[in-house]
């Protein structure tokens, strides 16, 4: 079940100025972390979500196969520094490429928590920060599409 696309940044727009916190407590903005790089940005349902971690492993395999074309990969857990540390620890073996941060909550990108269910999503942004692909869902299995990521990152 996908959320209404009007609730998250539309294609061609930029993600909002999110505040991020690292596992060690360091604070940065999304724009500072991206630093003009194209990226795959996955908003996790939770720091321990096995489906989100499986998506991270898929992105790692895509990177290893050269399908990310140099794009960064950010894995964003809801919460604060402890959640970022948990997500980083769980992702380390499966997705060493992932830069893991926490975002407080995901509501700034339209990913609400409804009936205790945190929506998750994957956004692909280009080097100018414009959203090239957006897939969000209440069900983590539907919040990522490798084919959509490949298409959004394909050289133009």
From TrEMBL:
UniProt domain Thioredoxin: residue ranges: 9-156
InterPro entries found in the cross-reference section: Redoxin, Thioredoxin-like_sf, Thioredoxin_domain
Domain of life assignment: Bacteria
Name the UniProt record assigns to this protein: Peroxiredoxin
Organism per entry: Isoptericola halotolerans
